[in-house]
Amino acid sequence: MVFMKKSLVIIKPDGIGKKIVGEIISRFENENLYISKLKMIHIDRELACMHYCDHKGKPYFERLINYITADSSVVMVLEGEDAVNKVRSIMGNTDPAKAISGTIRSDFGTDITINVVHGSDSTESAEREIKLFFKNYYQ
Predict the structure, then answer these.
(1) Is residue 59 helix, strand or coil?
(2) Domain edges within the chain
(3) pTM, entire model
(4) pLDDT at residue 138 greater than cutoff 80
(5) C-alpha to C-alpha distance for 109 and 97, rounded to whole angstroms
(6) Is residue 118 annotated as part of the catalytic site, yes or no?
(7) What is the pLDDT of residues 85-97, one digit of tens each?
(8) CATH 3.30.70.141 corresponds to the domain 5-133
(9) How far apart are CA 21 and CA 16, in angstroms?
């Protein structure tokens, strides 16, 4: 069995509201990424603050927390070869205005905060984030 890399992906509240969850999941699956865990949850403030702890103290932190906690999100673990980089390529630049045409954020994002999806930025972040949202994943 080949060891597969993992990434956490969150389809944020605006993705749910725009009814594009299926479209987003299809884009990942069409690039040979496998969903090993998936759930819909309402991310509370405590979890959001733990998840975005690297952004604490930045001017946009409160807007980011308010946005991710505003409604339900779909949280999933994607696995595949070079999963973190592949996921980030499919999502596009954090700022939809700078994202390459055809990426998720280019097609559906509103601005740098309201940008439809989150994906882990490194394998270390992926492990930390997966443990936050799927507590028993590595047991």
Answers:
(1) coil
(2) 5-133
(3) 0.94
(4) no
(5) 8
(6) yes
(7) 999 999 999 999 9
(8) yes
(9) 6
